[in-house]
Specification:
Blueprint: E1 10-11, H1 12-15, E2 21-32, E3 35-40, E4 42-43, E5 57-59, E6 62-69, E7 77-81, E8 90-95, H2 97-121, E9 125-129, E10 135-139, H3 145-160, E11 165-171, E12 189-195, E13 199-202, E14 217-225, E15 228-235, H4 237-256, H5 265-300, E16 305-309, H6 315-323, E17 329-335, E18 339-346, H7 354-362, E19 368-370, E20 374-380, H8 384-394
Parallel strand pairs: 1-4, 16-17
Antiparallel strand pairs: 2-3, 2-8, 3-7, 5-6, 5-8, 6-7, 9-10, 10-15, 11-12, 12-13, 14-15, 17-18, 18-20, 19-20
Helix pairs in contact: 2-3, 5-6
The chain binds zinc ion.
Length: 403
């Protein structure tokens, strides 16, 4: 068993990383708002520290949602609970093993990778984040593809070597006997973690008992970060899940494109090219259609007051063109399933006020929308004919543009 500093909690997770049940006495308990807290005589619950997230689980019949150290290094382990526990009571604890095992895989893989990058390129680990399945390690060195590729291969060999992992305590004064990957951040009694023949580091986290359990370890990408490099990786079950998910996506794409999975980029690139070409063609056709419809409407409306239905694909384009035609006032509508889209616009030479027309004719029919020189909006589908009628009735006279 080990105690750190003067705190009361015995941290069982250090010596028993593979145990998931324990019994303890509630030493202290308190409540703040809807949250309940407890400190135990001993605990298997790992508190968030060193980049490794906390455990979850149950104490008696209340859930443990969060675990933290009350203050750095010498602090008690505080369990945040969904219900109260009573000081002095005995309580059965159970940690969520599936979660913890994944955290140990992430964490052990990080040790393996930190050493792999050190060997491959002399890269020093600056920070780690193990809070989600895609973990990161930040290094102080500039990105280098070759180093990443080599480190990944070295990490795979470290996994295949199936090296035993030991965790033990030494006094600060004995540290010179141990070739640590990086100096410890704490003083006094130091906990060391050794992956036999591979890595030796000071660490207070939970680790696997054998490097083989951390595999597979897969680098996903690396990028420039704060003057160094951030490396993204997945490990263990989560690497397998990542592979499975990506395989499913790739297999489904391969089927859709009737191509071998590893040659899928070519048909996708071909399709993207085709879409680009069709978009250009489509735009030209729309322009042509809008132009033709505009000329038809002008020919049919010698008074230049236009109220008409037009196809939805060119509604705005026809409206825009008409707004630039001297003397025009246009109300265009395009029927949809339950709503019709509309455009109300005019040439600046017309004296009518669009706001007033909107208010008098369209608003009472349930139109909604806005805009200044070109008003866009929607109208209930049933009101299309009434709206067209109103415009034809109220604006019957032609107002010729002044040349
Ligand atoms: Zn560690």
């Amino acid at each position: 068993m080990d105690r750190i500093g003067d705190n009361l909690s015995v941290r069982l997770y250090h010596d028993h990383p593979y145990q998931n049940q324990f019994t303890a006495k509630v030493v202290r308990s308190w409540t703040e708002g809807s949250k309940h807290f407890a400190v135990l005589s001993q605990t298997l619950f790992y508190p968030s520290a060193g980049g490794q997230p906390h455990d979850t689980g149950t104490l008696g019949n209340v859930r443990v949602t969060e675990v933290y150290e009350e203050s750095k290094a010498s602090g008690d382990v505080v369990h945040v609970l969904t219900g109260p526990l009573i000081a002095g009571d005995k309580v059965e604890g159970q940690i969520d093993w599936a979660r913890r095992y994944r955290l140990m895989q992430r964490h052990t893989a990080q040790h393996i990778l930190s050493q792999a990058f050190l060997r491959a390129g002399g890269w020093e680990t600056v920070a780690v984040n193990l809070t989600s399945p895609v973990c990161t390690i930040d290094f102080s060195s500039e990105p280098q593809e070759e180093v990443a590729r080599q480190a990944e291969a070295l990490a795979a060999w470290a996994v295949y070597a199936a090296s035993p992992i030991k965790q033990f305590w030494v006094d600060q004064g004995e540290l010179h006997n141990f070739p640590l990957r990086r100096p410890p951040k704490v003083s006094g009694k130091i906990r060391l973690v050794e992956i036999e023949g591979w890595d030796l580091a000071a660490c207070g986290g939970t680790h696997l008992k054998n490097s083989a359990e951390a595999g597979p370890i897969k680098l996903l990408k690396h990028e420039r970060y704060k003057g160094g490099t951030r490396v993204y990786f997945v490990a263990g079950w989560e690497a397998l899940e990542d592979y499975s998910q990506k395989h499913l996506v790739l297999a489904s794409l391969a089927e859709k494109f009737s191509a071998p999975a590893l040659e899928i980029e070519k048909p996708i690139a071909n399709q993207a090219g085709e879409i680009f070409r069709l978009k250009g063609e489509n735009m030209a056709l729309r322009d042509e259609l809008a132009e033709r419809i505009m000329r038809e409407l002008l020919a049919l409306s010698p008074g230049l007051t236009i109220a008409a239905e037009v196809p939805g694909v060119v509604l705005e384009a026809v409206g825009k063109r008409l707004s630039e035609w001297p003397g025009v006032l246009a109300f265009l509508v395009s029927p949809g399933e339950d709503k019709a889209r509309l455009v109300l616009t005019k040439h600046p030479g017309r004296s009518e006020q669009l706001d007033a027309l909107w208010k008098e004719i369209l608003e009472p029919l349930g139109a909604r929308g806005g805009g200044k020189d070109i008003k866009l909006g929607v109208l209930p589908a049933g009101a299309i004919h009434a709206a067209l009628e109103e415009f034809r009735k109220q604006l019957p006279r032609s107002i010729r543009p002044t040349p």
